[in-house]
Each structure stands twice: as structure tokens, then as C-alpha cells.
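hey so i finally got around to running both of the ones u sent me last week. sorry it took forever, my laptop kept dying halfway thru and i had to restart like 3 times lol. anyway pasting them below in the order u listed, first the sequence line then the C-alpha cell line for each. didnt double check formatting much so if smth looks off just lmk and ill redo it

first one:
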Amino acid sequence: MKVRDLMVKNVVTLQTDTSAHEATKLLNKNKIGCLVVVRNDDIEGILTKRDLLERVLEKCKDPRETKISEIMTRKVIVGKPDMEVFEATKIMVENKIKKLPIVDKRHVVGIVTVTDIARVTNIDKKTIELVDALSNMHMLKH
């Protein structure tokens, strides 16, 4: 199965100058765990709930004053729509990430999460093992 057959195509994005407060409202409204940060449709970063917890709440920053550009993860690991799901899962495990934006020429065309992969784990034994490892990666030693 190809990633394009699995990915969520309606990716919620935001601009780098958005406040952490507005980003949090967007996450809650859409009941999602991350937002892809774009500039002129090109991927600039990713913002997860963990980024908000560690870089805003824990540091007692004002979410209305803190811009996404200050707290987003800039080094974004991405996948391609034509890659196999197994390959995407392997990338996620190796990089200890749970969300993989899917890009075509730096433009975001979708996103795949651990949850998406879990829905199709009957593909093969290797993919099941990788999803299991990814789901339990917080228990892996660094």
C-alpha cells in the first residue's frame, strides 16, 4: 500500500507568525495533535502538543505573545506520497516521530500518523512490528 492511499489529505496548517494561543485553539477545534507550519505553501516546520507543553507552558511564556516561529520544530522529517507504508513507518521509528508530513516538491499534500498506520496494520508482519515499536518508543532508551 502506498502512503497516498492512507494519508490524511486535509492537513491543518498555519503561518509562522501565528501565536501559540491561536495554534492551541486550532488544535483543539480540529481535535488533532499537530499543525504543519507553512510559508507560501512550503513547509517551514511542525508544531505538536509537546512543543506547546515544553516550549510555552513549562517555560511560562505568554501564549498570546509567543509566535509559532519561536517554538516550532524546524527540522521536519517528511515522506513522499508514492512511498510504501512500510517505508514511512520505518522512517517514523528510526526518527522517533509519530507524525509524518507528506510532501511533493516541498508542498504539503498530506500527513500520516501512528493512528493512521495502526488502522492498516494487517498489511504484513514487518509493518505491525514497526507500529508496535513506534507506539512504545517512549520506553526505548536514548
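and the second one:
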Amino acid sequence: MKLILAAICVLYFALPTPESIPEQIWGKWVVSRELPTTTISCWGETEAKALLGTEIEYSRDVFRWKDIVIRRPVAETKMMSADKFNTEQSGQGSNSSKVTFRQLGIKQKEALQVVIHHPAANVTGATVEVPGDEVLVKDKNTLVFSTCNIYFEARRLQNHLPGKR
């Protein structure tokens, strides 16, 4: 019985804890560019280009992309190492997707990953992801995310820094 209780405690503390969206990404962001990676995508050039210039908004109470609004979002945060990211996001075969922090322009050995949970969304029919629902914090003003396995960079709109009203 003690072993089972110990195992439950270890799992409880090892798993990410649901929380609200972290304040460091609160604000409005604009999808600024597609990042060159070696991935296999479910989108074509038309869908990828349509994402450029769109706005993503994060706050304690809302996650929004275009007209898709998730109220009272639940998020998980964790530090993602470059090695773990490469392993999780790349396939094993020679013709598989390959993506690294270096391709994404992330110079650190690890980056904060924020994953926002939400009901399935219909963005194009090819994916249930909402752009910006899983991001890596590249720096204070830059997020990196993928939709349909195409990687994008989003830049913070400067008048929307946390704490500014």
C-alpha cells in the first residue's frame, strides 16, 4: 500500500499542473512569419500564408485566435529541452519530419512551453489545433508555434506588454 501511495505521489508531482495562462505571454501577438523547417505538413502554402498577419491574444481569462475564443483556458507549462523537443517533434525515418531549436532560431538549451487545452476546433478541416495553443517562448517578445506541422513565429504587439493598460 505504501508503494502505491508513493507511486501516486511521484506521478502527481511529476506531471504538469493545470493552471491559467502564464502572465509572461499575456497580451496580443501577431503571426509574423513562417519558419523554415524540414517537416511534413497537412497544410499547403495557401493555408500557411493565410495565417500570417493574424492575431493571437492571451490573458488569464481568454485565449483567442481570430473568432475562436476559449474562455477560462487551462494551460500547462514546462521547460522543454532542445534534445527532448527534437525527439518529440521529429520522425525516425530518413524521410520524416525533422525540427530543431536551431531551425526555430531558439538559441537557449531549453525554452518554456505553454500548452492550452481546449475543445477541438475547425480551423481548416485539416486540423483541430488552434494556432497558438502550444507555444515555445523564444524570448520576451517572440513565440514559436506550429499548426499542421508548419512552424510560425509570433511577435508581441508592443502596446500589449503584461502590466500595461
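quick thing i noticed on the 2nd:
Residues 18-160 form one domain.
anyway thats it, ttyl
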